[in-house]
Automatic annotation (TrEMBL):
Domain of life: Eukaryota
Protein name: FANCC protein
Species: Prunella fulvescens (Brown accentor)
Lineage of producing organism: Eukaryota, Metazoa, Chordata, Craniata, Vertebrata
GO biological process, one term: interstrand cross-link repair
Any one GO CC term of the record: Fanconi anaemia nuclear complex
PANTHER family: FANCONI ANEMIA GROUP C PROTEIN, FANCONI ANEMIA GROUP C PROTEIN FANCC
Length: 549
C-alpha cells in the first residue's frame, strides 16, 4: 500500500490479515492467538491513532483505504475490546474518521456506520454474548456475560474521562491535546446512549469540557439530548454539569424554563410549598446565580406574563421563583458572587437593593418605613423624564412585581400599623394600575382610602362597591385591600368567610383572592410570624375557594 512520506510505516496489512483470521474469536484457537497478540495490537492501534488524529477523515482514508474494515472487525472481537485501553483507542480512531460536516452520501453513510460501531462499543446490551466459546471464556474469568461487558463499559468510560480531564488541564500542549473535532464526534456518538447509567461520568465530563476553542465543540444534538433526558428525569447530573449545559446551549435553557412553566400550569396550586418544590427541583433558581441565565429566565417569565395578560397565577410563580433565586444568590460564596447590577443592569440600584432585602431580614417594626422608602424611590423613578415610553414603565413595574412580598406587606401595613397611608396607597395603585397618569392614580388612591379606615358596619357597602368598579385593575386593588382587612383587622375573622366568598361570587377575582391567600400562607410558614388564627382562617378559605379556581 502506497503511503505518504510523512506517515510512519505501520504494519497495516499484517493486522488486517489477523483481524480477518480471528473474526469474532469464536474458536479456542482464535481466542488463544488473539490473546497472544493483544499487547502488540494495542501498541499498533495507539500508533495508528497518533498518525491519523491530525489528518482529518478524508486524508486518513486516503492514506489507509482499508482502515474501516480493520477497525470494524476489531470492534466485534470481545478479546480485543476487553484488553487494557484498546476499546478507548478504537473509539478515538473511529472519531478521527467521522466527518463533522459530511459533503456527500458516502460520508453520510460512513458517519452512520461509525455511530453504530460506537453504540456497539458503549452499550453492553448490543453485544452478542450467546456464542458458546466466548461465554465459556468469560465464565472462566469469574464473570457473567452481562457483568463482563458492564465492567468493560465502566473501564472505558473511566479511561475517557481521565483523558479528557487531563487534556483540559494540558490544553496548551497542542500536539498532545485532543482536537475539538474529536470531542465533537465523541459527543455525537453518545447521543443514542444518553440514558445508559454507566455513561453519566462521561456526559458530565463532556459538559464541563471546553478545550481551547472559542466555538462550541459539543454537538447541538448531544446538548439537546442531554437536556431532554434531564428534564424527563431519565438521567441525573451534578448541578455544575447542568449549569454548564444551559450556559453553553441557550435553547436548552429556554426549553427547561418553558418545561417548568408547563409543569406548574398543569398542577393545582394548592400551596406555594408545592410550587416552590417544583421550581427548586428544576435547578433554575440555583443556575440563575449566573447573571446570563437569570436574565434569560426572567425574560421568558416576562413574556409569559404578557401572553397571559398578567394572570395572577403566573405572577405568583414569578414571585416564588424570585424568592428562591435570592436564597441561592445569598448563599453564594461572597468572593464568587456577582453584583446585583449584573442581574438588574438597567434599574435604579438603590431601588433594587431595597426590593432585594427580604422582609424576614428586617425587624417587623421597620417594615412600614421600608415600604415607604420603596414607594418614594419608585415614585421618583416614574416621574423621571427618562421613563418616556410604556416599555420603560413596564420594565419598572415588572421589577417591583417580582418582589411581591413587599406589595403584600404594604397592603397589610395599612391595616396593622400606624403608617402614613399615602406612600403605601401610591405603591399599590401603581402596581395595580401602572398605566394610569398621576391624576388617575391619585383618584384610585382616594377611592381606596375608605377601606383603610373601614369599620365592620361599613363592610357590606364596601363589598358591594367592588362590583361597581369598572376598571379591572381598580377592582383587583380594592379586592386586595378588602381581603387584607378581613384577615388582619380586629373582628374581621368573624365575617371573613362569608364576605370573601361573596366578593368572589359577584366579581371575577377568585384567582386573585386565591393567589393572595396562598402567598400569605406561604409567607407565614417561612417568616415565623406568630398569627395562628390568621393561618387557620387562610387555610379554611383556601379549601372553600379551591373548587372555584
Amino acid at each position: 500500500m502506497a503511503q505518504d512520506a510523512t506517515v510512519p510505516k505501520l504494519n497495516f496489512e499484517y493486522w488486517l490479515e489477523k483481524a480477518v483470521e480471528w473474526g469474532q474469536a469464536t474458536t479456542l484457537e482464535s481466542q488463544k492467538d488473539t490473546c497472544l497478540h493483544l499487547p502488540q495490537l494495542q501498541e499498533f492501534l495507539h500508533q495508528l491513532y497518533e498518525t491519523i488524529k491530525h489528518l482529518g477523515p478524508t486524508v486518513a482514508i486516503q492514506q489507509f483505504p482499508l482502515i474501516g474494515q480493520l477497525l470494524g472487525r476489531l470492534c466485534w472481537n470481545p478479546f480485543v475490546v476487553g484488553y487494557d485501553e484498546s476499546q478507548k483507542t478504537l473509539m478515538w480512531c473511529l472519531c478521527c474518521l467521522y466527518s463533522s460536516e459530511p459533503q456527500n452520501a458516502v460520508e453520510l453513510k460512513a458517519n452512520s456506520w461509525i455511530r453504530s460501531l460506537l453504540c456497539h462499543l458503549l452499550s453492553s446490551s448490543n453485544w452478542d454474548s450467546n456464542e458458546a466459546e466466548t461465554s465459556t471464556f468469560i465464565s472462566a474469568l469469574g464473570y457473567t456475560s452481562a457483568d463482563y461487558y458492564c465492567h468493560l463499559v465502566k473501564n472505558m468510560v473511566s479511561s475517557l474521562v481521565i483523558e479528557l480531564r487531563e487534556n483540559q488541564f494540558n490544553g496548551l500542549n497542542i500536539q498532545e491535546s485532543i482536537s475539538a473535532s474529536r470531542v465533537h464526534a465523541l459527543s455525537i456518538f453518545c447521543v443514542p446512549l444518553i440514558t445508559l447509567p454507566d455513561l453519566t461520568p462521561l456526559l458530565e465530563t463532556l459538559l464541563l469540557y471546553h478545550g481551547g476553542s472559542s466555538k462550541e465543540i459539543l454537538s447541538s444534538e448531544f446538548l439537546e439530548a442531554v437536556n431532554e433526558a434531564f428534564l424527563k428525569k431519565k438521567i441525573s447530573l451534578p448541578e455544575s454539569a447542568v449549569f454548564s449545559l444551559w450556559l453553553r446551549h441557550l435553547p436548552s435553557l429556554e426549553k427547561a424554563t418553558l418545561h417548568l412553566l408547563d409543569q406548574l400550569f398543569s398542577i393545582q396550586l394548592n400551596s406555594l410549598e408545592e410550587v416552590a418544590r417544583a421550581i427548586k427541583d428544576s435547578l433554575l433558581p440555583q443556575a440563575s446565580s449566573h447573571p446570563a441565565i437569570f436574565r434569560i429566565v426572567n425574560d421568558i417569565f416576562k413574556n409569559s406574563l404578557m401572553e397571559t395578560d398578567g394572570a395572577s397565577e403566573v405572577m405568583t410563580i414569578i414571585q416564588v421563583f424570585t424568592q428562591l433565586f435570592l436564597q441561592a444568590y445569598q448563599s453564594e460564596n461572597k468572593q464568587l458572587k456577582f453584583p446585583l447590577k449584573a442581574y438588574f443592569p438597567y434599574h435604579h440600584q438603590p431601588l433594587v437593593r431595597a426590593l432585594v432585602s427580604r422582609p424576614f431580614e428586617l425587624p417587623t417594626t421597620y417594615w412600614s418605613q421600608h415600604v415607604k422608602h420603596i414607594s418614594d424611590m419608585l415614585k421618583a423613578s416614574i416621574e423621571d423624564t427618562n421613563v418616556s415610553s410604556l416599555t420603560d414603565l413596564f420594565e419598572i413595574w415588572f421589577l417591583v412585581a417580582c418582589f411581591g412580598e413587599w406589595l403584600d406587606i404594604a397592603a397589610e401595613q395599612l391595616l396593622k400599623a400606624a403608617v402614613e397611608p399615602d406612600p403605601v396607597l401610591w405603591l399599590l395603585a401603581f402596581y395595580y394600575c401602572p398605566k394610569n397618569e398621576n391624576q388617575q392614580r391619585t383618584q384610585t388612591m382616594v377611592g381606596n382610602v375608605v377601606i383603610v379606615n373601614l369599620s365592620l358596619k361599613d363592610l357590606e357597602a364596601a363589598v358591594h362597591r367592588v362590583t361597581g368598579i369598572e376598571q379591572c385593575c381598580n377592582q383587583r386593588f380594592t379586592t386586595h385591600l378588602l381581603t387584607n382587612f378581613l384577615l388582619f383587622s380586629p373582628g374581621g375573622h368573624k365575617i371573613a368567610q362569608e364576605c370573601i366568598c361573596h366578593i368572589t361570587e359577584i366579581t371575577d377575582t377568585s384567582k386573585e383572592v386565591y393567589n393572595l391567600l396562598i402567598r400569605t400562607a406561604y409567607r407565614f410558614n417561612h417568616s415565623g410570624e406568630e398569627n395562628q388564627r390568621t393561618v387557620k382562617l387562610v387555610n379554611e378559605l383556601l379549601q372553600k375557594l379551591t373548587l372555584k379556581v
